[in-house]
UniProtKB/TrEMBL annotation:
Cofactor dependence: NAD(+); Co(2+); Zn(2+)
Cofactor binding annotation: Binds 1 divalent metal cation per subunit. Can use either Co(2+) or Zn(2+).
BP term (GO), one: amino acid biosynthetic process
Pfam family, one: DHQ_synthase
Domain 3-dehydroquinate synthase N-terminal: 65-177
GO MF assignments: 3-dehydroquinate synthase activity; metal ion binding; nucleotide binding
Organism of this sequence: Crenothrix polyspora
Name the UniProt record assigns to this protein: 3-dehydroquinate synthase
Chain sites annotated for binding NAD(+): 69-74, 103-107, 127-128, 140, 149
Stated family: Belongs to the sugar phosphate cyclases superfamily. Dehydroquinate synthase family.
InterPro entries: Dehydroquinate_synthase (IPR050071), DHQ_synth_AroB (IPR016037), DHQ_synth_fam (IPR030963), DHQS/DOIS_N (IPR030960), DHQS_C (IPR056179)
Pathway the protein contributes to: Metabolic intermediate biosynthesis; chorismate biosynthesis; chorismate from D-erythrose 4-phosphate and phosphoenolpyruvate: step 2/7
Amino acid sequence: MKTLTVELGARRYPIYIGSGLLAQPDIFRQHIKSTQVLVVTNDTVAALYLQPVLNQLQDYRVESLILPDGEQFKTLDTLSTVFDKLLAAKFSRNATLIALGGGVIGDMGGFAAACYQRGIAFIQIPTTLLAQVDSSVGGKTGVNHPLGKNMIGAFYQPQCVIADADVLDTLDDRQLSAGLAEVIKYGLIRDIEFFVWLENNMEALLARDKTALAYAIEQSCVNKAHIVAEDETESGVRATLNLGHTFGHAIETGSGYGHYLHGEAVAIGTCQAADLSRRKGWLTEADVDRIISLFMKARLPVIPPAQMTTEQFLELMAVDKKNVDGQIRVILLKTIGAALLPIDVESSLLQQTLNSYGR
Ligand code: NAD
Ligand code: MG
């Protein structure tokens, strides 16, 4: 097992990464503050991993809450049922909430923990690759609003994150690849060595080799932890984690939510950002080819949906959170392994990318 630390002063916390971690009770127990524990999960994950987790907690007063599975349930209404459960169980301020699931459960469980009696302890047990390398680390929690994704939330850090590579065995191939898009992102924005390692080890990752997966999770978390420690609330370098996301969000919306998984849209969007970085004179054509090849190797799409027009992209990209005064801002690459902070791009270059890349 590897232990990393997210260095956030008094709120610093460990990320445990390895195999067989759900069967090691000591990992949980040192982070649980009282006898009251609520495990929040969904019906898919409960069928697979709830019992193994409950087995480690037999001498606690454990309650579990099984939510319906799906992004459409990441809402204030569902959140309310978590509070109902905590209150009905008469759980107090020193209770601990364990979020067992993918990013939806982690975001919602974390936000419930942040709000219940103004904050109780929580533990993240991420069960998708995306959650292990991205959403469980960094303290962004929240739910969706009918008018916008992740619009209601809080920064709230967990007591610890337990990333067990074994749980990825049951994840479907498409979800695994979607998580790999964010993994590749870390190499691109700040870690050329990791990027090269990914080029050489993609087959092992797709074959779910546990050593390879644990290494990829570790390197991803090392990179994310550094960024979060430097810029917890996203006033600077944390924005580089949005590489490919301005294009990607436009694709998610433009193609109808649910058509592409987030990681799939990010893969396409990152290729577009790479193309734009080449037009700026920073990446070479060979760099762009290398980036596209790695996403393809990870079985991710790299071509924007044919039906989306340049005008539609521009319209959707104009609503991004990074924009200032209506000017579209994107994260671009100076080289493979070095991203720049959000920059205003000349609309002529952006249009060239949107008109030409993958068309
Ligand atoms: P998800 O939570 O919906 O999980 C994907 C699917 O996999 C679900 O059907 C889930 O039930 C299933 N699943 C989970 N673990 C499984 C396992 N081990 N075996 C089999 N099936 C399993 O989606 P996700 O991709 O994990 O997370 C997406 C969410 O994360 C979005 O809501 C997004 O906004 C959020 N997110 C948050 C942050 C952050 O910083 N907080 C970052 C990125 C994404
Ligand atoms: Mg993302």
